[in-house]
Amino acid sequence: MAVLPTYFVSHGGGPWPAMKNEMPGVYDRLEASLREMRREVYPDPKAILVVTGHWEEDVFTVQSSVAPGMIYDYSGFPEHTYRIQYPAPGSPEFAEHVRGLLQASGFVAHSDDSRGFDHGTFVPLMVAYPEAKVPVVQLSIRHDYDPAAHIAAGRAFASLRNEGVLIVASGLSYHNLRQFGPAARMPSHEFDAWLDETLRISDPDERAKRLEQWADAPSARRAHPREDHLIPLMVALGAAWSEPAERVYHEDDFFGGIAVSSYRFGKPKATDEH
User: Fold this and answer.
1) How large is the greatest C-alpha to C-alpha distance in the chain, in angstroms?
2) What angle do CA 148, 221, 109 make, to 5 degrees?
3) Number of structural domains the chain divides into
4) N or C: which end of the chain has fewer CB within 10 A?
């Protein structure tokens, strides 16, 4: 079985896949990149592990419901976006496997059988996997936002890539809700350039060291006043520890000035034959 790549996805704002009439064309590039992600790991994975920046716990916590519900963790959007359904099955067995990998690596890890899909999960997956047939399990990030711990958690998941599991880290490369549009141009571009340079470093130890010290990067705290949307990246990188990064989505004028990016770690599984 081929080794699957991992992904860090800048998942966009709110429930955008259900708002194409309200925002025509705004998310075309992101939508195309999410569809391409599926093509790159064809045929479909056995399961998807989503590390979501919209779920924080004191310790790593794994969603273990058989049939997760929905969490509409956004506000101010049209009424119909609070009726979105993404009925992908969960997998208590896979969730326990994920928890076991964390525990074997020295982490305290819990499970949660009541947690639903938040929009960090259902938004990108309803584009990439609209049939909602692949089992999906969410993983929380930790409240402490410790980069080294999240990289180490990712390394604990490396074996999943040989088991047909797609690891998707869902966040945003720029996430400052108080500074959008033209005011975000300089800080988002500065941080985006640093992030791209960092992820392309070939030495895994040096790459991890720079990410652990991400707050020292240009415009770091203007790009991420709280790093909840950056921390999932650390897990995707850890799981593909020594493999190269490729930017698979980029815009430099998103919402009037923001630079945003998504990355793949490792080579795509699929070729152009389909």
Assistant:
1) 48
2) 30
3) 1
4) C
